[in-house]
Amino acid sequence: MSTQSPARLPPLQCGSRTLDRATPQVMGIVNTTPDSFSDGGSLYRAGRLDLESAFLRARNLCEQGATILDIGGESTRPGAAPVSEAEELERVVPLVRRVAAEMDVVISVDTSSPAVMREAVAAGATLINDVRALERPGALQAAAASGLPVCLMHMQGQPGTMQDRPAYHDVVEDVADYLGARMAACESAGIPRQQILLDPGFGFGKSLQHNLRLLDQLPRLQALGAPLLVGLSRKSLIGKILERDVHQRLAASLALAVLAVERGAWIVRAHDVRETADALAMCRALADITP
Ligand code: 7PM
After folding, report:
1. Tell me, what CATH number does 136's domain have?
2. Catalytic entry in 97, 98, 235, 249
3. Whole-model pTM above 0.70?
4. CA–CA distance from 264 to each of 6, 103, 156, 199 (Å)?
5. Which run of H or E residues covers position 90?
6. Tens digit of each residue's pLDDT (9 = 90 or more) over 244-278
7. Which of 8, 25, 109, 280 has the fewest CB within 10 Å, making it most exposed?
8. Which of 204, 250, 266, 273 for a ligand 1 pocket mutation test, highest count of atoms within 8 Å of Cβ?
């Protein structure tokens, strides 16, 4: 466990905005894909992404307490079909531009494509979230050139097949080794250590036991020295334990968010922003008691 007071940790600088490391942060999910696993294309009209609906969704999440919005146009759900770069650009860039023009929030672009990174950053994104940890050719360079913070996530396999028989030597050590190596690759490419976030990638090529062990052992990942981001909201590990469908997973998602923050997570990626922000405010209150 760290002996340094969280208040002394340097803030994360996202463009002109700073995020305070002493306060757990909620990253609200704005999924612009038609088959988003839990918001089911609700931002679509007549088969096309409706920019106004997407913007209203984004504004709502900010009003509910999101300090970061994660805007993505590629579905990484298990079994999802790949999306073309042109389509990803078309879904993401206009929304990033509109949100950047009208709202005071950190905009995270959820992409693995260097072109989408560049265009989204030009449109106002100030954080890069890549479920492939900048492994695509050109992604490290595009991220480094932006000068912005990056979130490196662990995934085993590829979205289409990652959930059939995931296997590890030791899931916690394997994920820690991978994230450590990607952090080193970032530093070699010129992305400073203070600009790196790490994410174990819950649900990305992991069995229920793998997910639970990673959650329990988050402090091992925290020891890598970068702030942690976690995405547990409505994920199938909850369905496996409770046998609840995706819209009946709020209470369990909040429990997991609190447990993750207790174990050292800083940013929680969530669908239900108001409820998550309330839960994390309780974590903060307890962390802040005067001795
Ligand atoms: C299955 C797996 C279904 C994942 C849906 C998802 C994360 C992310 C996503 C995450 C970071 C979802 C996702 N999950 N980015 N993008 N961390 N950094 O729940 O856990 O929306 S997609």
Report:
1. 3.20.20.20
2. 235
3. yes
4. 10, 29, 23, 12
5. helix 85-102
6. 999 999 999 999 999 999 999 999 999 999 999 99
7. 8
8. 204
